[in-house]
Specification:
Length: 98
């Protein structure tokens, strides 16, 4: 995983840039809802801000963290989501598959 920071925006990227999780610290209110909403538990709080602490390749792109953020401080881009849905290797039960 690569981590890039510009001003107060941090991009966590997979090696091939298929998965990007962007956290905007200026927008973040430190509520932790994104961490609690991550179905694969790769997010954690560090210094009162969310960060990717697990294997970013586990991200399924279901965007629970993004959807539950009350201030839109986190965004998820997963170019593999269609592959996951079509192959049915994703075990999450969400609206993406139904």
């Amino acid at each position: 995983m690569n981590e890039f920071q510009k001003n107060n925006v941090i991009d966590y990227k997979s090696e091939n840039d298929d998965i990007i999780i962007r956290i905007d610290k200026d927008k973040c209110i430190n509520c932790g809802k994104c961490v609690l909403s991550c179905s694969v538990h790769i997010l954690d709080m560090k210094n009162n801000y969310p960060c990717v602490s697990g294997d970013i390749l586990l991200c399924t792109g279901m965007r629970g963290c993004e959807i539950n953020c009350p201030v839109n401080a986190i965004t998820v881009t997963n170019k593999n989501i269609k592959k996951l849905i079509l192959s049915r290797t994703c075990n999450n039960r969400c609206i993406m598959c139904f």
